[in-house]
Structures are given as structure tokens and as C-alpha cells.
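Why this split exists: single-chain examples teach little about how molecules sit against one another. For that reason, every record in the complexes split bundles all components of an assembly together and asks for one structure covering all of them. Below is a record exactly as it appears in the raw files.
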Amino acid sequence: MISEIKKEILSRIDKELVLNKLASGRRIDGRGLFDFRRINIVPALIEKAEGSAFVSLGKTKVLAGVKVSLAHPFLDTPNQGIFVVNTEFTPVAAPTYELGPPSEFAIEVARVVDRAIRGSEMIKLEDLVVVPGELVWMINIDIYALDDDGNLIDASLISAVAALSVGFLPKVEIIDETRAKYEIIKDEKRPIPLQDMPVSFTFAKIRDHLILDPLYIEENMMSGRLTIAINTKGELCSVQKGEGGGFKLEDILLAKDVSLKKANEIRNIILEQLAKKPRGEEAWNEIRG
Amino acid sequence: MPIFFRNMDIVVPGDIIAKGKDYKILEGAFKHNDKVISEVIGIVYIREKTIKVVPLEGRFYIPKVGDIVMGIVIDYSSISWTIDIKAPYVARLDASDFLGHPIDPARDDITKYLNVGDILIAKVAVADRLTHPQLVAHGPGLGRIIGGRIVFVSPQKIPRILGKNQSMIKMIREITKVDIRVCNNGYIWFKTDNERLEKIVIEAIMKIAREAHVSRLTERIRKYLLERIKET
Amino acid sequence: MAKLVKNGVMLLDEKGLRNDGRRWDELRPIKMTTGVLERADGSAIVETGGTKVLAAVYGPREVYPKHLAVPDKAIFRVAYRMASFSVEDRKKPQPSRREIELSKVIKEAIEPAIFLEQFPRTVIDAYVLVLQADGGTRVASINAVSLALADAGIPMKGLVSAIAVGRLGNQVIVDLNDVEDKYGDSDMPIAMIPITGEITLFQMDGTMNPEIFEKCLEAAKQAISEIYKMQREVLRRKYLSIKEQVLKGDVNDIGDKKGDTKQNR
């Protein structure tokens, strides 16, 4: 049974508060209309994963893990590796989530994140080949929502690109090519071959206002959602409109402008965080707070 | 009869507060083989032979008859509304208990009076283990709320927001001159046009919730409020 | 001391030290943290060496579907799940039979400690996500859910504390890591409500003679009382540190703690 994420019924006072603030160009948490919340990344904290990143976007928290394995390439792409994005929005993250297979929303997020990574060609799929036409690396990116205070889409993409950025591939030694015998040497590893880093911007439409990085309470009031991902070349590499309502053309153009303007800023924040932080067991000090 | 904690100590589930047969437990603790044991994380109050533990955690509210609660209308029928009072059970408010007179469902559309998303302050009239809690919202101080701000604290902290004989809340009202209503289910509503005062009231409430377990709270809050008001 | 090697893995060296350098009764470093999530009513992270689990509790709340509600008490549900990246070979997200069995035994280990009768016709839900697995995930989960329940303000007869003991050859060991779980001769997870002395989880795989069995139980009791102490310390710590700050005169710090207050609801 596919479950839907129920919207909470907000009180009139909550709604009025949000709208009053928006009318004066502010959000209820003091942010401007197009400000991101504070982004915090704890990289490489899961030892059994080949890449991982815990990300908090304000109070929203997600944890992405990368696992790699050897697989047969797809028939139509014999010289390319494979990557799969999966999201798990479990009841840990919110009281309205249910156990069971991913909801429509969870699947939508996984596919949007996938398209941003694929569209930007972030992963050099040709460099994942071990034996052309026979053996390639398959990269599984699993994103777990831990705490939903809004905008799981952007938080998920940040965690996925962060996990990939600190990810690695072990060395493969072919023992017998004809009989597909190979050995994985974990101690010799190379970074996952990357050539881009998409960043996404999710906007919510509330009445006539367009805002970036919605809070949970703002998501409950939005009539439409628009996500735009930008690659390092300044191109759009994925767009998704979600929820029921509609956007005016001006909204879309404005969102595009904001996204293009902020892409490098957000990307730099991610890179800065990845460079500074301790890894492994030490990384957990930050989680414990 | 040995006692292992002092009045106003922090206790956690499983802490043995005292040993002895004739202790009376008011709340938050249970007896096991002559030992009085805490059920929750809380502050223990020991007075002669009575022991009670006031919980410090918990966002849920268990309705009690006579409580004043704030609720959000989440559904309705032709003769009643369903109200979310942040309890594990939704509450019912019959139209007649809101209007003070019976209505004719065939002719009256009750959403005229209260609709989904509206907020009201009501009193708990019935709260037993068999049925949903029943509310009444007709009378002084009860009814629909318009405007203002709402702050939510853990319902366990409400007694501290009120204070002994309402001393704390009366002091806050006096110093800030703001109309504040405190509800037993954790909701606190107030209305002021002054943005600065709004901030001060919210911060004072948060401070009480955070420091509820540290003694001389009323004094600290009074000092805090007077300082902040002066800055305005 | 006799060495013990299996499948090329040194489980015990000549000095009797285990593969990670521990003595037979030494616990791995344990870290516990509560109140880590906003949306959950109660939460906790328990780390036992390389095993790291996150528990989230909701409730008491209304039961859906309604027909599951019980008239005289709350029902308690537990779902134990492992993140796909928590183990060496990626685990598919669909719940395995092992996860379903563990959900059940964890629930049955903790249920006796909760005052369910105080909340008729409601449900208390606990979810555990294993972020990293290095042996002893079910006992770490029990320790975490206990803390999360207390963090949610749910009244309990006492905390539930758990540990896994076992044997390597004739040597009793306490707090098995992944390697010992895989290559050891027996693994026995045990949970107890220390305040009442009731044992609420008891499983064993492998084999044990009666003498070693009794030694294991003794060792488990000892380890459990250490863990119980740690759990109570963690719960107290949050409030003691606030008290300290206040008494030091930190009057202007209003620090909005998770769950204490929310400005808009």
C-alpha cells in the first residue's frame, strides 16, 4: 500500500503569522524570501559505507550512504557504470510517515535527485568500467530522512553529492576474465570519479509569494513547489514542479534567476564543509552535539 | 524510613525515591515492594509522607474534567465539531455547547460559527476512558480566538507557567501589561500590537519551560522581565 | 592462555585479549545522546563501539487503523530497520525476516516496562534505524528505545537495559562485536528491567554447556547494571547542565531546546 504524506491542518493563527511576515518580505524564522537555512554537513561518518554524509538544513536532517558493488552493465550501455538513487522517508522523520514501501513523494524525490546527478553528469560513468561490456561498478545512493522540517528535496541532493564527493571505489583485480573471477582489494581505493556538482533550489508558492527552502509549516500552506538544479557550468540540469497548484511564467523565470545567482554560493558552502570536517569516528562528535 | 533524594531533585525512571510502607504517592511514582520509584524524568517533591514527581518531558496531554484547553477545529458533522486538543484522543464539541442553545441541523450550517482551522478555548466537560473527551465553549473566557500569537510548551510545564496560585502568570501580565491566556494542554495565547513586547513574552515563556526545574524561578523571571522591559 | 583462531581470524590471543584488544568482560566505548530529533516526541542515539542506532518514539497518540485500539491500555509497536549502508554488503530496504523478528523481540523486551494502562485506546510507536552495524544491534536498540521513551515523557516502571554475552571456546565474553558474532561459538543477547530484576529478552544461538551458561548470566547481570547506570546518567545530564548554567548566573541564555517550546503551534 502506497501511503501519502498527510498534510497537517494548520490553525488560522499560524497561517496568518506566515502570511503577515511574507507581506513584509520575511519568513517566520527571520529569513529573507530567498535565503537558505544553515547547511551543516558531517562527511564520511559511516565506516561500512563507501561514502556517506549527514546533512542538516536548518532542523531538517538527512543521512545519505553510498554502497558500491560489481555488476553487469545494462545492455544498451556496455561501457558505462550504473548508479541508483533511493530514498527512505521512514516514520523516524515525522509522525505522519508510515512504514512500508516508499510513498509517491519519496519516489518523486529520489527521481528528481537522480535526474540532477545524471543531468549534470556528475559521475563519470565511463570511469566505472572494470571489464568493458562485462563488469562495471554499480553505485547505490541511499538517502534516509531523519527529521523533516521541510525541503527534503534540497537536503537530499546535498547529502547525495556530499556522500559521493567523499566516496571511493576499491581496487578490482581480475583473476580470470573468462570465468568472471575477480578480487576486490578494499585497502587500495580511488575516489569516485566526479566531474560536476549539481545544487538544487526548491521554491514554494504561498498565495502570491515565492519563497526558497520552505519550512515544514510553509510546505503545509504552499500551493505549488518548484525545484531547479544547476550544474557547475551554470546550466539548468533538472527541473521539477510538484504539488497541485500552478506557477506563473514570471515565477518560473524569477526562480531560475535566483537559482543561477546562488548556485556557486551554495556549492562553495558544501565544498568548504567537506574540506574542514573530521571523518569516521571523530565525525560523530558533531552528531552528539 | 530512608529517603534517597532531596526535595526538588531531578529523578529519572527507576530512581528509588524512598523506602517504606506509609508513603503516599500523589503522582509520577509507583510502589514496588515498599520502595517508592519514579516513573518519569522529573522533579521530585517530598513533603512529610507525600511524594510526587512532576514530569519534565512529554508533549502529550491527557484531558481532565475542568481543564481549560485550546483546540483547532479539524472536522465537523451537522451537529458537532471535531477538535484537536493535542491529546491522544480527538475531542468533540457539540454545536449546542458552543452556542449556548440547541440548533436545527436541517436549517443551520454550523460552519458559519466555527470552521476547519479555527481556534478556540474550551473547557473539558467529559473525560473518561470510554468516550472521546467532550468540550464546552460557551461562557466567559471561552470561545473562538481571533488573532494574537500562540506558543506551545510541554503540558507538563504549564503548572510552572501558572505558578503557585497563578502567581507567575499574574506577575508576567502585570509587568508586560499583555493579555495572556494559559491552557492546560500546553497552549499559551496572547495578543499585543507591540512587536518588542511579543518577543519578551515568548522569551519569558521559553525561559520558564527550560528552567522549570531550577529553584527561585519566579524571582529570576521577574528580574528578567524588568530588565528587558527597561530596554524597550 | 590458549589462542583461538577461526577462519583466519584471531579471536583470542595468548594473553586472552579479543580481536579488538578487549578483555573478556570489557565493554566497547558506549555513547548515549537523547533529544536529537525535532519531529519525534522522544529520541535517542546509542553507540556501542561501531554499532550506532537511532530510536524515535511517538505517542501516546490515536491509533490508526482504529480497530487495533485496545480499550484498557495503549498498544506498543516497534519497527527495527537497518539502513542499507549499515552493513558490508548493501542491505535491500525491504524488511527482512530478521528485521521482523527483531522488531518483535525488541517490543516484547520493552513492553513490560511501560505503564500502558495509563493511556487506554492509544498507541506508542517506536522506530529504530541502525545506522551502522558492528554486532549487538538489537541490544543497542533496546537501550536506545528505553531512553527515547523516557525522553518522550512516557511513564515506565524502569528503564530496560540490554547486553549481548557469548563464548569463544571456553571463554565467556561480554558485548560481542560483529566478528565475534560471526565466528564465535555462541551469542546470547539479554535484556533486563534492573529495577524489578525481570529478564525481558533472552535469546541464544550456537551451543553452551550449563557451566558456561551460568557464567554468562552472571557476566550479563554485571554488564547490564553498568549500562543502566549510564542510561540514567544521560537522562539526568541534560537537566543538571541547565541547572548549572542558571545557578552560575547565565540569566540571559534562553536556549530554545528541542520540544520544550514551539513558537507557532
